């Protein structure tokens, strides 16, 4: 790669010719402020916060889009630059709803942090503000355009990465706003509710629907038996909300924090993942033998399922009928567990702590009820669970570790890796391989389906059969796979699709980090590595060897794919045409 010599603030350095000034500055440890910039996704130079002086150039240069050149001399901190940045920021703040103390992003807002950094103590340009209605009709996402700074990060994420295009910039000039077609609520659009827009928003313009009040009320109700379950990816991220390094594994501390909140039982959704593998794996084997509705496509990502229902309704029959792990687990808690403990199922209130905002929508689906009872009564994101702990004065950094409760706290390593892209596929292959061959695997890791590549393909030899699999994460990659299936140009047997890039470790309900951290730290990899470590350290690493799974099938369900299992652990999906409904 060609390199050029440049000087930034007196620091001489040699950098690749493909760098921007911002890239070079970050490599030199020089902090240039940004708001609209999102590396590789939204590089438009719109906010003008990253301006610098380039010797010999007329006016200021926008460092996030200006390429370096040999001999370039740059200054990032002069009186003129500081004044220009302050004026730009004051103009942004003049049209911003500055209710910081009541905003969910208080103290984790890039606009707020920049105002403090530039010492904005007054705003000269206070004037008329355009007021926009709050969109809080969706069960997953709340949009507050009054806090939007028109950075277009969310638009770029939705269009370029997820390729959904549910939101875009509307109108012109002072009346510009990020909105939806026909001004509809997100719930009435093809939005997948993945929440990736929330993760990249620098302010509180986008947030999850807060269900903490509902959960607090349930915990205070003496007539309710409140059970909480935690997804695999949560334990690898919730520590970040308490100042721990990204990807710190805090399983025992998380369990202790939830018990301190007052839940009657704290269970592990990884156990639910083991049941998902049993049901989904059985379904895969049956459909491969019957050569029916292939490829089988995973259905544990609700954002992906919603996307498939609206964008590929003609291919819904390819989706596995198995419920997602937390929905399966909720159904078992209200049936098997309720029967064992002699508790009225109607008094059990199941809370799921998930890395995902689409799970909120999923839990409210009519298809997720058994005998009129919802499988899951409330879904909290990782962020919401952390907020509840903070409200109760719980600090995960200092709390002593505790273990999940019996009898539904045992899980395999296969369940743990559900939280990262390729994990569902790998967990399924471990079980499907041993069921089909009747032999124990010599090597449990299927590294062909691991890693951050957008689409991974592999031919897996199982006995005398070659099983063709594919893994896609992010809806943009899912679109490529689905278009191939629709055109009849692929011969996969089994496909894993996750709505969020990187899988659940990067879900829309996970801790939010600023754009600079996202550009310089591989957040997804650090969290995924923590889950692979969980898997590696557990004595049981295959779903079909989980003792509680065996016990529930023996005592209650009969066998994977049985009539009872279908009643409780399977569901169906439907085509959605939001603009004509």
Derived from helix and strand composition plus strand pairing, the structural class reads: alpha/beta
Oligomer: single chain
Tell me how many strands there are.
19
Helical coverage, percent range: 25-40%
- Separation of the first and last Cα atoms: 53 Å
Based on the structure given, which CATH architecture of the largest domain is correct?
A: 3-Layer(aba) Sandwich
- CATH uppermost class of the largest domain: Alpha Beta
Using only CA atoms, what is the Rg? 25 Å
Overall structural domain count: 3
Q: How many H/I helical runs?
A: 19
Looking at the structure, the CATH topology of the largest domain is: Rossmann fold
The proportion of strand residues reads 5-15%
How would a crystallographer describe the biggest sheet? 5 strands, mixed
Report the mean per-residue pLDDT as an integer: 94
């Amino acid at each position: 790669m060609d390199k050029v010599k440049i000087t930034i603030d007196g620091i001489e350095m040699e950098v690749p010719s493909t760098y921007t000034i911002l890239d070079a500055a970050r490599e030199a440890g020089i902090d240039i402020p940004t708001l609209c910039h999102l590396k590789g996704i939204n590089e438009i130079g719109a906010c003008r916060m990253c301006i610098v002086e380039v010797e010999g150039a007329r006016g200021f240069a926008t460092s996030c889009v200006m390429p370096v050149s040999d001999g370039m001399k740059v200054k990032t901190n002069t009186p003129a630059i500081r004044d220009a940045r302050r004026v730009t920021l004051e103009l942004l703040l003049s049209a911003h709803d500055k209710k910081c103390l009541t905003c969910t992003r208080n103290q984790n807002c890039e606009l707020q942090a920049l105002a403090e950094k530039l010492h904005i103590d007054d705003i000269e340009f206070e004037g008329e503000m355009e007021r926009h209605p709050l969109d809080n009709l969706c069960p997953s996402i709340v949009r507050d355009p009054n806090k939007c700074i028109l950075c277009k990060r969310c638009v770029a994420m939705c269009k370029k990465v997820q390729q959904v295009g549910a939101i875009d910039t509307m109108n012109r000039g002072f009346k510009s706003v990020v909105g939806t077609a026909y001004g509809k609520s997100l719930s009435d659009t093809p939005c997948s509710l993945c929440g990736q827009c929330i993760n990249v928003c620098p302010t509180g313009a986008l947030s999850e629907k807060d269900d903490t009040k509902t959960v607090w009320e349930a915990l205070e109700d003496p007539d309710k038996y409140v059970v909480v379950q935690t997804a695999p990816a949560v334990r690898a991220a919730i520590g970040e909300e308490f100042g721990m390094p990204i990807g710190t594994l805090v399983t025992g501390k998380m369990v202790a924090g939830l018990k301190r909140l007052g839940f009657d039982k704290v269970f592990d959704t990884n156990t639910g993942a083991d049941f998902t593998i049993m049901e989904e794996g059985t379904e895969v084997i049956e459909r491969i033998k019957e050569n029916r509705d292939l490829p089988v496509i995973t259905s544990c990502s609700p954002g992906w399922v919603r996307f498939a229902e609206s964008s590929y309704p003609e291919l819904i029959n390819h989706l596995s009928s198995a419920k997602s792990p937390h929905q399966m687990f909720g159904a078992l808690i209200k049936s098997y567990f309720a029967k064992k403990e002699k508790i009225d199922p109607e008094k059990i209130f199941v809370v799921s702590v998930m890395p995902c905002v689409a799970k909120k929508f999923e839990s409210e689906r009519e298809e997720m009820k058994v005998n009129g009872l919802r499988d899951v009564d409330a879904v909290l994101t990782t962020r919401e669970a952390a907020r509840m702990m903070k409200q109760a004065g719980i600090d995960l950094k200092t709390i002593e570790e505790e273990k999940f409760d019996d009898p539904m706290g045992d899980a395999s390593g296969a369940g743990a890796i559900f939280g990262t892209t390729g994990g569902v596929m790998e967990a399924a292959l471990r079980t499907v391989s041993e069921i089909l061959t009747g032999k124990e695997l010599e090597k449990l890791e299927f590294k062909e389906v691991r890693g951050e590549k957008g689409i991974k393909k592999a031919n897996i030899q199982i006995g005398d059969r070659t099983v063709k699999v594919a893994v896609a994460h992010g809806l943009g990659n899912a679109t490529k796979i689905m278009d191939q299936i629709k055109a009849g140009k692929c011969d996969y047997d089994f496909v894993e699709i996750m709505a969020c890039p990187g899988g659940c470790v990067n879900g829309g309900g996970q801790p939010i980090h600023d754009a600079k951290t996202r550009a310089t730290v591989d957040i997804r990899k650090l969290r995924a590595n923590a889950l692979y470590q969980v898997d590696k350290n557990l004595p049981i690493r295959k779903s079909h060897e989980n003792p509680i799974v065996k016990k529930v099938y023996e005592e209650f369900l009969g066998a994977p794919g049985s009539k009872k299992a279908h009643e409780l652990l399977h569901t169906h999906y439907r085509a959605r045409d939001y603009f004509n409904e």
